[in-house]
Amino acid sequence: MTPRLEIALVRDLPPFSGIDEKSLRDILDMARASRVKVGERVFEQDGEAREFFLLLDGNIRVVKLTPDGEQVVPRYISAGELFGIARALNMETYPASAVAASDCVVLSWPTAVWDGLVAKHPTFATNTYRTVGKRLAETQQQVVELATARVEQRVANAILKLANQTGRRTPEGILIDFPVTRQDISEMTGTTLHTVSRLMSSWEDLGWVKSGLKMITLVEGHKLVLVANGVKPDKR
Amino acid sequence: MTPRLEIALVRDLPPFSGIDEKSLRDILDMARASRVKVGERVFEQDGEAREFFLLLDGNIRVVKLTPDGEQVVPRYISAGELFGIARALNMETYPASAVAASDCVVLSWPTAVWDGLVAKHPTFATNTYRTVGKRLAETQQQVVELATARVEQRVANAILKLANQTGRRTPEGILIDFPVTRQDISEMTGTTLHTVSRLMSSWEDLGWVKSGLKMITLVEGHKLVLVANGVKPDKR
DNA sequence: CGAAGCCTTGATGCGCCTCAACGTACGTGG
DNA sequence: CCACGTACGTTGAGGCGCATCAAGGCTTCG
């Protein structure tokens, strides 16, 4: 038999804030831990939502496929976040696919336990709905951005978001701590890998970022913030 | 004292489906009805979320303002829908403004009653979260569209959505039943009123729509569906 | 060591924004 | 009821931002 999951793993994560240890034990005992290797999928768009998940370690890329085969990446999930919670919103299928952007450790619960879980642990329900609210707000913010900002601004913003979410301090600057390709960025921002490449090259020339293969380091974040806000570089 | 609100007003609306009449009475007794004239605002972006609302009649335009003063319209609310339900997601302020697109009748509840209400009437909570789920899915769909579809497709789609939501059959075709300007459409699709005007003129020449001042009638919906799906008009 | 995946950089063109000007319906007050 | 002002709509000309097409270099891994 598998060992019990450690409460310490999740106790301090936002989804479980304010929940006492006994309840936590109860919740954890319904979960199953598993590993997902980079590139593997946790679940598939339009697939039946049989489980919901908590990301313990790693990074998940959420991917939507359009009818004509293009990909859009509406968000990245990082450690400590719930995902695949279609069931919380009474949906029967996942609205997008979830791909491991790096090696991951996830907890999963059968969807069937959801109703009992929120009934028994209202704090957990509250926390979850707060998360949903944040995601809805973020998504609407994306709509606004796509509708009004130029590519340059959107790409700068995407890099800043990634750096904030999963950045690690290094001597060089803030390193985005999992493999990200130019194509990934383009799918987050509704542009092409070519345009992203050109932009990043120009920023690298200016010394604002450092980038290599699947690797981005933010050197002068504040400069990118200006770009993201549509400030034109010094028009003399 | 004001008369009690009629249960018949809301009994058959989706947010109240599956709720017995006694509970309905209870819920309704906490509500207040009011009228909002076209152009007036029900609530303001970033304002404190003191109430949540149900639209009984009319149409509400949801508007987001960008830092640099541009407007984006992420959705329209039509009769029978809840709106301003920030509180359901533990948010303290409204993420957008709500403007009456036509004369409206709305019910409103003080935010303070929310928690008691969902506790006492779980069916209502479930219905609400289903709505939230649908909106999140729609919003993500918008992101995909803005990221991948050309203006032409997006505008066609916006008109189709409006026609589906609030269209009224007339001898000419399906009439969008409240005033919509070219600018409104452009703010829904992230383009300019000029481009919308040009597109609609060309569709009018083809006989696919009829349009006048603040008025749009869909004559050949299936043609617009093709445009929305990116089918190029007959390339021989 | 070769192949596949990732990145870069140029050339070209077009979709759509921007700027500009004018036409048209509405409603408001004299 | 007509005259005017205002808001809405149309249409043209011009140009820029970014996609598209094309070619080649670099890294990683089997």
Topology summary:
2 copies of one chain form a homodimer.
Chain A lengths: L20 H8 L3 E5 L4 E3 L7 E7 L1 E7 L5 E8 L3 E2 L13 E4 L3 E7 L3 H7 L1 H27 L2 H16 E3 L4 E3 L5 H8 L3 H13 L3 E4 L2 E4 L2 H8 L8
Antiparallel strand pairs in A: 1-8, 2-7, 3-6, 3-8, 4-5, 4-7, 9-10, 10-12, 11-12
Helix pairs in contact in A: 2-3, 4-5, 4-7, 5-6
Chain A binds a DNA duplex (30 and 30 nucleotides) through helix 6.
Number of helices of chain A: 7
Secondary structure category of chain A: alpha+beta
Radius of gyration of chain A: 19 Å
Specify the CATH homologous superfamily of the largest domain in chain A. Answer: Jelly Rolls
Q: How many structural domains in the coordinates of chain A?
A: 2
CATH class categorisation of the largest domain in chain A: Mainly Beta
Major protein interface: A-B, 36 and 36 residues
- The counted number of beta strands of chain A is 12
Strand content of chain A: 15-25%
Given the C-alpha coordinates, what overall shape of chain A results? globular
| Integer average pLDDT of chain A | 94
Poorly predicted parts of chain A: none
From N to C, what is the helix and strand string of chain A?
HEEEEEEEEHHHEEHHEEH
Task: Kindly report the oligomeric state of this protein.
Answer: homodimer
- Percent of residues in helices of chain A comes to 25-40%
Largest sheet of chain A: 4 strands, antiparallel
**Spatial separation of the terminal alpha carbons of chain A:** 71 Å
**Under CATH, the topology of the largest domain in chain A is which?**
Jelly Rolls
